[in-house]
């Protein structure tokens, strides 16, 4: 918005991301979210009463995170009852959408400090039982998993739209000609870079532990992964397919938090901002082409920031599938070496509602560590959407 005050990212933290059925299997999603909110408050010294709003993303909303997990997490974190909270659902883009909502509130003057982020426990996502229209139906009823993908599909939806996420990306692979070898190489790189980032201490300030759980690093990283080992895995969605459990992101559990504020909020937060929210973009395509949607979302965000790809020093693209990530990079014509340099979701994990906060926080940290001015965080979203945010590191030389 021209002439509006800017919004800034002041801090970002997340839990380690746990495997499906792994370390966080006994931890409720609202408790995971509360951990990250607490961490931001504790490490900045911010007065919790100074928070104008809590906005969290969540993709499921059918289990323990129902009834507005943002409000519940804020209460569990001990924030004053006067701090309101709202939950955003844009599926995989939910926590990036939460940050967008928070930044807009700041830029319009409706808020000065907003705690954003998101959470997902794919392990604890419940089965649901469709409610019959009449009491005591004569037929059997089927439990439906809410962990991932379409459920209770409206029969009016065209069949081609409601194929599985994996089949959608197999179709994209055919259209764009991305080989199995490229996918496996990209996936192995994700594990290699994620492991190196942890070993170097990069994530030490970005990840906080969960009390009572011994997990200190992302649970899905396999540092010994190679393209050769991945080549031995069977295709998951087609007998002759290329997408496997090794070149797609795993089911995961975790939470993220991102602290946003105005320039004037620096005194109350007790630190200088890390980056400015410089541009935002969303885009929609046919539901089964969702993997391509970040392409135009990022172009819109760059246009609104007033820059082009040649000025971008770092990209955080959520790796839902290696194939859709590669398709986006090919369309943008960017240097792959500036993308996900600290690993991506294939290695780190993809707890749907938390991933947008992860990529945004990681991007801000990379811009600072590498002295880049501009960066893009982008994510594909089920049912045919994509979202992107441009950050500016105003301290870059």
Describe the structure.
By secondary structure, the chain is α+β, with helices and mostly antiparallel strands. It has a domain of 261 residues: Peroxisomal Thiolase, Chain A, domain 1, CATH 3.40.47.10. Helix content is 31%, strand content 18%. Strands 1, 2, 3, 4, 5, 8, 9, 10, 11 and 12 form a ten-stranded mixed sheet that branches. Helix 2 links the parallel strand 3 and strand 4. Helix 1 crosses helix 2 and helix 3 crosses helix 11. It is globular, with a radius of gyration of 20 Å.
What's this entry about, in short?
The protein contains 11 helices and 12 strands. It has helices at about 30-45, 70-75, 95-105, 165-175, 180-200, 225-230, 265-270, 295-305, 320-330, 345-350, 355-370, and strands at about 10-15, 20, 55, 85-90, 115-120, 125-130, 145, 250-260, 275-285, 310-315, 375-380, 385-390.
Relevant terms:
18% strand; ten-stranded mixed sheet; two-stranded antiparallel sheet; single chain; 397 residues; Peroxisomal Thiolase, Chain A, domain 1; globular; alpha+beta
The main sheet comes to:
10 strands, mixed
Q: How much beta, percentage-wise?
A: 15-25%
The CATH superfamily of the domain at 8-125 and 249-391 is identified as Thiolase/Chalcone synthase
Mean pLDDT: 97
Within the CATH hierarchy, at the fold level, what is the topology of the domain at 8-125 and 249-391? Peroxisomal Thiolase, Chain A, domain 1
Please compute the radius of gyration using only Cα atoms: 20 Å
Please identify the top-level CATH class of the domain at 8-125 and 249-391. Alpha Beta
**What's the tally of helices?**
11
Instruction: Compute the number of strand runs.
Output: 12
Query: How far is it from the N-terminal to the C-terminal residue, by CA?
Result: 26 Å
CATH architecture classification of the domain at 8-125 and 249-391? 3-Layer(aba) Sandwich
Report the principal-axis shape: globular
Q: Give the H and E element order.
A: EEHEHEHEEEHHHEHEHEHHHEE
Q: What share of the residues lie within helices?
A: 25-40%
Low-confidence stretches: none
